[in-house]
Every structure is written in structure tokens, then in C-alpha cells.
Design goal:
single chain, seven-stranded mixed β-sheet, 59% strand, elongated
Length: 123
Amino acid sequence: QVQLVESGGGLVQPGGSLRLSCATHGIISSINDMGWYRQAPGKERELVASISSAGIPNYPDSVKGRFTISRDNAEHTVFLQMNSLKPEDTAIYYCKAEIYVWRNYARQRGDYWGQGTQVTVSS
């Protein structure tokens, strides 16, 4: 069974930094895109950053220049470095990965989500 496990959330003051990690557990074939999403109370879940298997990142304007996504393909882990944090960055952050696994002698694709980690930016 494949699981994504996030860590690194917490409480930070405005202007501070946090680094989130998301590790993949289980037997997998390969991972394509990986990404981070967030959901604030009363709002829809939104993309924060994504990265292709080749390491090409993508950011929305709201975090561009402040957040950096990276990945370790050997360890099947994705990271999110968040700098210059603002109160509006407060949300639950989820990692997501497009993972291929072998099941019944066939290679099958699925989107997997982590359980989420709380990030709170407040003075």
C-alpha cells in the first residue's frame, strides 16, 4: 500500500520560513509529477507548487519568488521551502503525487495524497 507522509508544518511568525517534506512509503514503480496544495478554512484546495519528474517547477503568482519546490527522486521525496511567509499562507498543506504501481501484473497509475500538515502564520 502506497502512502504519502508529510512533515514540517507548524506555527511561524510573518516573514519567517518553514520547510515541508513529503515522503513516499510502499512499493512503487515510478513517480511522475509531485506537488503541494493547500486549503484554508472556507476556501477550495489550491495548487501551491508542482514539479515534474525532470525537475521542472511550476508556481502560481501568489507564491512565486517565495516558495521553492524540489524533489529527491532516489528517496521518492518532495520538499517545499517557504520563505517570507504571510498570514494568508495559513492553511493545511497537502502533498500529491502521480504514482505508478504494479498490480495484478499491470502497471497502474494513481493520484495519491498525504494526510496534510498545518501551517499557521501569525504573530
